[in-house]
What does this fold into?
Amino acid sequence: MNSFYRLAADLVLYLHVSFVVFVIAGLLLIVTGHFAGWRWVRNGWFRVAHLGAIAVVVLQAWLGVLCPLTTLEMWLRSKAGDAVYPGAFIAHWVEQILYYDAPAWVFTLCYSAFGLLVLASWIWIRPRPIKRNKGRNDGDLRQG
It folds into this structure.
């Protein structure tokens, strides 16, 4: 049973890393895509998902709430009998990678600044509006 919890914890970790990559790379791709003429970086759904993702991170930081993915991963690791790390996911891995320990307010400031950059990208590089399917209703089964 420990191997199940360990595998589940690893999957949550991979999901968490993917989320972080989406948030960071998303902004880099939006800016790069603007200059490269990539139309997809103005996709409304992509941009809403990206803005929503960083908004959740910023809100959690301002409220002092630990990320649910971190909480779930730590719970799964403890059930597997593995060692767990204290605090937030990003803070832990930044410390592991850079050997830098910072108070929580530093991360809140960084998340907030990054969130403002994402918000500024909405003004600078406007997303296309999200269009609803016009002329079709929910009961219309015709292909279209």
In short: The helical segments are 2-36, 44-63, 68-80, 89-98, 104-124. Residues 2-124 form one domain. Residues 59 and 91 are 16 Å apart (CA to CA).
